[in-house]
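Quick one, tokens below:
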């Protein structure tokens, strides 16, 4: 889904290098999830599962920061 490609792509470009090994493993597992679920989690329409909750919150915060900055 294009929306998730944009959201995750910008996060990967801007923040992925700062993730530790465990977070990178979680990010890789997150990428295997259904795009519709990812979008719902990232927008807050549905809660992210526990194993993804912190990373999804970080991705959503990153996206909100980009939006607030007009990027």
């Amino acid at each position: 889904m294009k929306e998730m490609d944009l959201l995750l792509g910008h996060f990967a470009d801007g923040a992925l290098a700062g993730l530790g090994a465990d977070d990178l493993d979680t990010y890789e597992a997150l990428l295997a999830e259904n795009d519709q679920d990812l979008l719902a989690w990232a927008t807050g329409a549905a809660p992210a599962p526990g194993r993804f909750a912190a990373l999804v919150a970080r991705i959503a915060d990153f996206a909100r920061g980009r939006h607030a900055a007009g990027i």
